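Sensors of blue-light using FAD
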Amino acid sequence: MRHYCYTSLAPDLGDAEFEAIIARAHQRNRALAIGGIVSFRNGVICQILEGPAKNLEVLVPVILADPRHCGVATISDARIPAIGFADFGMVRVSPLDVALRSIAIIDRIGAGRSKSGPAQLDLVLSAPPRSVHLLQSAGAA
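Structure:
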C-alpha cells in the first residue's frame, strides 16, 4: 500500500467545478481501491491518496499533469501497512489540516523526517477549526 499527499494551486477553479471533479474521482478511485481525502479552499488543494502502489503509480502522474492546477508540491510519499482512509471524498477542513494529517501518518509509521511527534500534530488537528485557523494566522504574521 502507498500513501501519497500533495498540495497545489488552482486559482481559476470554482467550488462547483471542484465538487464535480471530486464526484467523478470518487467513482474512479473506488474502482481502483483508492481511498483518501481532499480539501479545496481559496484555490488551494491538498489531497491524500492511499491504495495499492501499482494503482497510485498510474493515477498520480495523471493528477500531476492536470492543467487545471499548478505549483504541485509533494508533501509525503511512502509505503504504508494499510489504508487509513477506506473511502474517498472531500472534507470541510483547510488544506493545511490535510497536510498536517499526512505528516502525522508518515511520522507514525516511521517513514517521516519531521522531528515533531505525531502527538504534537494530533493536538493541533484535534483542536476546534477556529483554533487551528487562529494558529495559522499567528504563524503567518
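Residues 112-141 have pLDDT under 50 and may be disordered.
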